[in-house]
């Protein structure tokens, strides 16, 4: 059951000057959107705060992300550079779900497996493995047991 999300169109997304984008025709949903490469990911929930991030995995030109990653995380990505995209995607999903002030808060996100902490608030993480060339992560304000993933052609969203 998608609770009406199939009626979603990209033209129905409003991008306020600050804060999360929202779906202008149904304020009952907490809503988030992300895009990278060939994917646009949308998360919506009537009962939880949600944040989603998709990152296309590519070659890193530099590894000096000290404003975003902890020293332990930087050491880990020096050994496994592709890990950067998973860490970034998880942190960005949390910051977006918490509706905080963008990437400036990403270093404050503490990751532990499928849980993240930000400002003493717990966030639940779920990796969405649909393409090994992308890191896709969902952050929610409570644990979820069911996730509906739908593929929709871009021309249907216009």
Q: Residue ranges: pLDDT <50 for 5 or more in a row?
A: none
Q: What portion of the residues fall into strands of 2 or more residues? A: 25-35%
Structural class by helix and strand composition: alpha+beta
Distance between the termini: 23 Å
Number of strands: 9
Query: Biggest sheet, strands in spatial order?
Result: 5-9-8-7-6
Tell me about the largest β-sheet. Answer: 5 strands, antiparallel
Helical residues, percent: 10-25%
**Strand-and-helix sequence, N→C?**
EEEEEHHEEEEH
Q: Give the overall silhouette.
A: globular
Q: If you average the pLDDT, what whole number results?
A: 84
Count helical runs.
3
Counting copies of identical and different chains, the oligomeric state is single chain
From the alpha carbons, calculate the radius of gyration and give it in angstroms: 16 Å
